[in-house]
Amino acid sequence: MDWAYRYGASYFLCKPVDYDSLPALLSDCAAAPTPVTVDDAQTSERERRAAGLRELLTDFGISPKLNGCAYLIESVLRAREDALLLRNLSRGLYVELARSMGSTVPRVERSLRSAIDIAYERGSLKSAELLSRSYCNLPRFVLNYSR
Question: What is the CATH code for 53-142?
């Protein structure tokens, strides 16, 4: 029964159920506020960052419908948590992404490459310049937009 609370249940029913008291139990459960745990705060922070990344990638011309967009968002969030994943992309980050998202390493790599290609084709240079100035503190000539 302890596992039910660990996975977020505030109440659960055991069989056999007393159907006469069921409406009162359901109304009590619906009225009780759910406590916010540390995991919920971290999840909401992660979701907030993911939403910001999704908006940024959309500005670059990458559609959120693409698998590569989801892989890019997840890879940035994971790299932020563990920078060592960036040391060897094909054996570190790509494997983690494939495992967590139910895919294979070649599919992850192909989706990421196609999303980056789309960003080069559709994306605006103005967005890249703003990003380079605000986050990277790089001079304008350092970024190479050509292939």
Answer: 1.10.10.10
